[in-house]
Amino acid sequence: MDKTIKLPIFGVGPIYVITCLLLTIFGLCLDYFGFLGFAKLPKARIFMSILGSIFIIGGVILWVKSVIFSKISEKIKSGLLVTDGVYSIVRNPIYSAFLFIFTGALLFAYNLCLLVLPFIFWAFLTILLKNTEEKWLQEKFDDSYTQYCKKVNRIIPWFKR
After folding, report:
1. Looking at the predicted structure, is the pLDDT value of residue 46 above 60?
2. pLDDT at position 84, please?
3. How far apart are CA 95 and CA 71, in angstroms?
4. Has residue 10 been placed in a domain?
């Protein structure tokens, strides 16, 4: 373990969040202006609105638990690998929170075409993390991080394997 490596507090977060936000807005604009009318699911409106609300609320809760309750900024500055609390069910809960919030917003449009975007968000995040933060964490924490990765999902919250 190389304790001298300093990890950035924001990591790839700004790149990920801004890109996904812009894609979400673009998709919702396409829907709003009728370019995706062929894929509307009016009979699913209530269901998708409820599901969208659950995703947004879940995302906000995940963000609050990962940023405020876990005090992640302080722990990053201290050079600690956080594996407890919400970090025991997902390795990247802040990014997961935004994935959920953007997915929730898209669900309110009840448009089948827009449901491709969450998969793009997931793939984009996976590529970003594998090529940046996961390399940094592996270099800094070595076997501790490897063991953590074996137990906890990267993006989708799940109970310990």
Report:
1. yes
2. 94
3. 15
4. no
